[in-house]
Amino acid sequence: MNSIFLDTLSGHKTKRPPVWFMRQAGRILPSYQKLKLSHSFNSLMKNKELASEVTLMPIKDLGVDAAILFSDILIIPESIGMELEFTENGPKFHNPITKKDVSSFTFDSSKLDHVYSNIKEIKMTNDKVPLIGFCGGPLTTFLFMFRGNEKDKSFNNALKFFYSHKKESIEILEKLTDASIEYIKGQVNAGIDCFQLFETYCGIIPSELYKELILPLSVKILDVARDNNVPTIFFPKNFNDGLKYINKDICDFVSIDWNLSLEYARDIVDNSVGIQGNMNPRLFYSSYEEIDMYLNGLLTFGEKNHDWIFNLGHGFLPDIDYLKVKHVVEWIKEANWNRK
Ligand code: CP3
Known about the structure:
Layout: H1 4-9, H2 30-38, H3 41-46, H4 48-62, E1 67-68, H5 75-79, E2 84-87, E3 90-93, H6 113-125, E4 131-136, H7 138-144, H8 156-164, H9 166-190, E5 194-199, H10 207-227, E6 232-236, E7 253-255, H11 262-268, E8 274-279, H12 288-296, H13 299-304, E9 308-312, H14 322-334
Parallel strand pairs: 1-4, 4-5, 5-6, 6-7, 7-8, 8-9
Antiparallel strand pairs: 2-3
Bound molecules: coproporphyrinogen III (CP3).
Coproporphyrinogen III binds near residues 74 and 198.
């Protein structure tokens, strides 16, 4: 496949940084919002033609260099027996975890089969654009499993359990890891071209604790893709100085959140690992002039760093004007990056 995204991931020099966005599938696109009038999120995910259409929408409507599978990180808890509902206010579980549940989780691989047929459908519809598969990091997925009330966004229950029941927590985290490993094998076999691990709530515990307890599990999941020659991107949001632990034994690229500058991140991440990021999604609420000022400020970094993928520092917010996003994609593609 001829792709600037895959070329960058494999360490080749390119004329410009490739561009795609976290949460580009769905959310901000008018064509998605139209589909949502007659279909629930769940029904879109489970219908291969529609899931494929939503996955490929940002290629058509925004011009990005890669597609990300339309699905959600929370189908892993569903696959081990939890009852998930996507309400208007976000996801919730009808049976949030309590201590006695821990040993009852059993992985049912058939709950994930629809994702593999979606991947095959997407690859059949468009074999010109790389497809990113994904799953949630163990900690992020664990935190959501305690959410029985979609309006409580605090994760207090989860964190209380984590600190007061370490042994059971580790047991759950390991079960999630095992299910994720099977899941990524399935995604790889179905044909994904790249894999991203979303550890969005990495920063909710101290970075040393994450490194010690959870990072080895994340690496086990990332390794499944790497062992099959599928390049990997790790997104440990708010890992802060923990980024100094990121090296080639962990992932190929690391996605940086918007709290750090790209230059600082580049300095502390091992040189063998590429960087992805890190526009603040809220900048899309600013004027075109302010957005262009930000983009102009990236030219020096982009000239020097071929191992950089342009992306956000976290996903889109739902009320962002997609025309500004389209403008950013065009800007990145047309700018003179002055690369040799
Ligand atoms: O990047 C993409 O566009 C691919 C699809 C994708 C979705 N969720 C679709 C989705 C991805 C990669 C995710 C990841 C995800 N899901 C994360 C990690 C990244 C992040 O943004 O923090 C988390 C924490 C979740 C859990 C989740 N799913 C929440 C908190 C919500 C509700 C709020 C929201 O984000 O809209 C969801 C629902 C969800 N996942 C929607 C979509 C398109 C919205 C459903 C709808 O359209 O009604």
